[in-house]
# Entry
Amino acid sequence: MAMNAVASGLVVSVVPDTGITFPLGFRAAAVRAGLKSKNLDLALIVADQPCPVAGVFTLNLVKAPSVPYSERLVKNGMAQAIFVNAGNANACVGPQGDADNLECAFLTASALGIPQDFVLVASTGVIGRLMPMEKVRAAVPLAAAGIGLSTEIDADVAAAIMTTDLTQKQIAVECRSPHWQGTLRIAGVAKGSGMIAPNMATTLSFVTTDADVSSDLLQAIHSRAIDRTFNRITVDGDTSTNDMCLVLASGASGIPIKSPEAMADFETALEQVLQFLAKEIARDGEGATKLVTVQVVGGRSEEEAAKVAKTIAESPLVKTALYGCDPNWGRIMAAAGRAGVKFDPDKASAWIGDIQVFNHGVGGNFDSDAANTYLKQSEVTLTVDLASGDEAATVWTCDYSYDYIKINAEYHT
Amino acid sequence: MAMNAVASGLVVSVVPDTGITFPLGFRAAAVRAGLKSKNLDLALIVADQPCPVAGVFTLNLVKAPSVPYSERLVKNGMAQAIFVNAGNANACVGPQGDADNLECAFLTASALGIPQDFVLVASTGVIGRLMPMEKVRAAVPLAAAGIGLSTEIDADVAAAIMTTDLTQKQIAVECRSPHWQGTLRIAGVAKGSGMIAPNMATTLSFVTTDADVSSDLLQAIHSRAIDRTFNRITVDGDTSTNDMCLVLASGASGIPIKSPEAMADFETALEQVLQFLAKEIARDGEGATKLVTVQVVGGRSEEEAAKVAKTIAESPLVKTALYGCDPNWGRIMAAAGRAGVKFDPDKASAWIGDIQVFNHGVGGNFDSDAANTYLKQSEVTLTVDLASGDEAATVWTCDYSYDYIKINAEYHT
# Structure
């Protein structure tokens, strides 16, 4: 199925039921180390050769050791493997956490026979508890022995990084562009906002591609694409101590990304993969009953439009109204008005789906039954026109339901 | 009962069961205009003479006409009456809203025989619906005829401004200071975050005092006191289109507030009144089961400490954990870490009540049963020490319960 075809001639096609090992030059494995009940909880993603890497990391000051460690390695520009575990975040445990994080890299490097400085580490799960290293020591060699390449392994990796996610989140695409010779592949896997003792909503995401792209260019493209995708989703405004999104580029397709046109098309394709994963995370937000797209148009800058969209998307009053399928335009405009962005409310307008609910400063003259029916769908869109410029931005979120409270209040550390 | 006695010798004593007319020189009335079901919904607060006034107003760009109108009058420095109604916010209805707002002031001025420019207007309730002016026209003369001075009237005024508040919020205090001759009085009434179709959480608050203080000084003192009280509460981070907090000073006590010491003591007393009302609003937040005090100490500035405290107080993950009585220090520290304030997590510490839950970067070594028991109380305190300076700030909030979702999702416009 064609995901999107843009004016340049780029065609991005989803290849169903495949994932992280679909791009050429990657293998993976997932095992059950015993870090979280009885499920898969430890995975390795491995490139055949050291290859360019890029990454973005949580901005939270309270960071797990995996974050500064992997950030430092990404700055080197080359990596070959990712160690990832769920069930234990290895955060807020003091100096032992740093030592255990290093040992995760060491164990992986030893088992794979590659330099330790090529092994990135990502962890998610309970914070404030020491990583049970005896379990990791037993599991890593087993994982390394099982390294392979299959659709089953892809699904296992997607399962292994889940915490309380209800759905696996993976995608693989084939891309063709007139600006490059042949077909290249991009795949990604992510975990969403799950809840772990004592918990926070953690996002981990890993992307592989067989494009031939330098690490500097990959980092620039990845950072821009993240700004428009992962940085545009919000479940509850809380940022984790462990977030990271890494991309490895094997170059095995033999397609160089060098000309400006080739770069632009690669960025678009990567953005589509990241957008898919980001929306899946929003859709599977804790207690969510629907995916909500908040579009703000008519802004003076994309940054300002995004700020307004994010304020609406994070408003508990808006999110509870969406859960209740109530076309509560007053809450939408009140959230827009407090976003810290200048606009003239008497020129602004708003829509729920295609139904205009606020027209140049005056709200309320619309068919509220139709709006209520529209809001009962599993995907809904809110649009606000600030009428102060030509820039736009989109943010994705979910609603707040009883289950959000249930998941987050009834859990006990 | 003595509310507080500070080092300067100031004594502030609460006078039970009285309210807005307790200070000398004020009368009030409340009537049922029919704007909200069958309850009192329109009140007048009237000074015997024109007197100095100060006010703070919502920063939301989407404002009801009452906000810029009253803001303009407050800038003149003198006022004599406040018209306030609940049940209809008179917001987002176009130019007719401006005309209706002016007519509310005109009707009040006519009935009281005072200049229209001395009548402030405050409205709260449904937005997006025209004010039923025929009801207001009938009610204002009735209210003016009933203007008086009694504890029953005080309670009626507190009731008339409520929307879905569960409790009336009023206070009256007598204050003595060695820096002024005799006793002066301050009283206040407020409405909290109630939910009205299509709704937002609105705060209105009115304060009277018989201190003799100029309007410029009153405004400076009021603004500072508001910053430490009303601007330090948060229920859900949403700001209304109609918020205002007004203070009228009759001077009828004959006590001039002029020396720096007299000013300082008056500011402290006013702050105590505002703090009481602010905490009552937080305690009565939608669905709240407990009042939560978030103290941040060891900040580089009061502003930074307040920013961290507010981020913790607004975190849905923290608020749901508090509802669940779960001593979830991970969520508290993760919120602190994303507040945008620089500090070293490895030096920071945190407490739930008196129980230290995070100690210089390491969390989790505490009696979680004792912390759970502590969190079952109706008033709880969280403390975070940033260990980067000597400044502190306090923010008040409430927890997020099923009822928050119920109140805000099950309502239909």
